[in-house]
Amino acid sequence: MADAHYELPELAELYDVDGGWSEDREFYLRLAGTEPIDVLELGCGTGLIARAMARAGHRVTGIDPAQAMLDVGRRASDGDRVTWVPASAQDFQLDKRFDLIFMTGHAFQVLLDDEDITAALANIRRHLAPDGTFAFETRNPALPWEILFDKVDVLLTAAGPVPVEWTVLWRRGEFVRFDTRYRLAGGDRISESTLRFLPHDRVENLLADAGFEIRSVFGDWDRTAFAPETSREIIVVAGNPG
Fold first, then answer.
1. What's the pTM value of the predicted model, to 2 decimals?
2. How far apart are alpha carbons 105 and 50 in whole angstroms?
3. Of the residues 78, 147, 171, 195, which has the maximum number of CB atoms within 10 A of its CB?
C-alpha cells in the first residue's frame, strides 16, 4: 500500500506543486541523452520526468502502484505521450527491455526489506537491455535525517496556500518514520511514511548480488564523488556487466 499522499486524489494533485522541476530531475533527463531510447521510470508518480523525457522524443513507460498519481500524470500536459502502468517494482511484467530504467524521488527507500529489494532488482535486470543503464538514488544514512525531516512549508496552489508539516516520529536503525500533515480547506490530511536508509556499501553489495555492475556513485546531482560522511545522496548508475 502506497502512502496517503500518493493514494488520495486530493494529495496526489499537490505532488508537482510540492516537488516541481529540480536538479535531480535534470540529472535523469540528461542521463537519457538526446537520441530517442526506450525508458522505464519506476515509482513515476505523476510522471514529471517521464513526460519531459517523452517531450524530448524518448519512448517512455511509467510504473507506479498508486493509481491516483497515474491519473494525475495521464491528465497532465504530454501525459498522452507516456504509457502508464499500475504496478510495483517487484511485480511489473512488460514484453520489452529498456535502454534506461530509473527510480527517483527516493523511491528506492520505500523498499523496506531485503526481500523486496532483491525482487525489484531481479525484475529490473530482466527488463534491462544488454547495454542498458539502471540508475537511482537513496539518502545517505550518515546524515541526521531525524532532524532534517522535521520542517514546515507552504504549497502555493491555484486554490490557495496549503501549509504542510513534516514530523519525525522515530529513527530506529536503518528506518525513519514520519508524518506529513496537509492543512487543506476541507480538513487536515495526514500521510504516514517509513523509509529505509541503507549505507552505500550495502547498496553496492545488493546490486552486485543481483548481477549489476556499478559504473558510478555520486554524492550530489552535479556528479560530485560520493563522500561517506558528508554527501546527502547516494546516486548510483549501474548496468549489466560488460
1. 0.91
2. 12
3. 195
